[in-house]
Specification:
- By secondary structure, the chain is of the alpha+beta class.
- It is 23% helix and 28% strand.
- It contains one helix and two strands; from the N terminus they run H-E-E.
- Strands 1-2 form a two-stranded antiparallel sheet.
- A hairpin with a 4-residue loop joins strand 1 and strand 2.
- The longest helix is centred in the middle third of the chain and has 11 residues.
Length: 47
């Protein structure tokens, strides 16, 4: 049985729209933002 979850990654096409949803609708604050150039990705950590 799973007892806890550390983090979940979700790939999105529109980061701005996703941030509006997770921040404004669900109330999750942005904790950290960063980029992974080798993967061509931008990442945002919400809590």
């Amino acid at each position: 049985m799973i007892s806890d979850v550390h983090h979940v990654g979700i790939a999105v096409r529109d980061m701005a729209a996703a941030l509006r949803f997770y921040s404004d609708v669900l109330g999750l604050p942005v904790v950290r933002e960063g980029e992974a150039p080798a993967r061509g990705a931008r990442m945002t950590l919400l809590a």
